[in-house]
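Methods — Computational structure assignment.
A single polypeptide chain was analysed. Its primary sequence is given first, followed by the predicted tertiary structure written as structure tokens.
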Amino acid sequence: MNKIVGKEFLSEKVVKLEVEAPLIAKSRRAGHFVIVRVGKKGERVPYTIASSDLKKGTITLVIQLVGKSSQKVGELEVGDYITDLVGPLGKATHVENFGTVICAGGGVGVAPMLPIIEAMSKAGNKVIAVLAARTKELVILEEQVKAYASEVIIMTDDGTYGEKGLITEGIEKVINREKVDLCITIGPAVMMKFVSLLTKKYDIPTLASLNTIMVDGTGMCGACRVTVGGKTKFVCVDGPEFDAHQVDFNEMLMRLKAYN
């Protein structure tokens, strides 16, 4: 079991937990995730590792409280224990000096984007972060992103913070003023679909970190399967990052409705 040593609400429905997991903290890389279970009969739920602290032997998880399982995780307090924590899982982000990289994060997707921004910045890239949320209260981790990004653009649906508009509008402004070598997008599936359509128009290589339904996280159950370039891939072992221009987002969006 893994002890919770820190807890903070980033917004009404988004909580940040710092959890003791020294082996995972040591081996995790940007893009990796863990699977969490609370209670012996609890559901296994994947969460991306937002950061880690090697000295403290901890990892940080940012969780959106949307269903029964995430609510159970959110109800845990400092000193409580997570029943099971498995990871790091998935393939790490490929990091090198690409040049100028746009990191487009929507909503709670900013949390898994944070370690990628950090890694890309440390590799010598000029990182421009475009963060989007419905309203000011839902913008998370802005200061942490600013610590690594060369520029941070905030887009809100209602204009209560930053610029009013969609994340694609913020991205296109950057594309129109300078050469972009790579775009990485994490957020709601429909958001990633339209980011992909935009960057494809400008022929900009784009990676999308997919957030499909996942059960075992080791490639056995097939629940997380997606079609990429006409071939079946499993997000848990082949991803979570894929060439966004090759992802069948319409199929993915349909499969995400399984629990509706």
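Note: Residues 172 and 198 are 8 Å apart (CA to CA).
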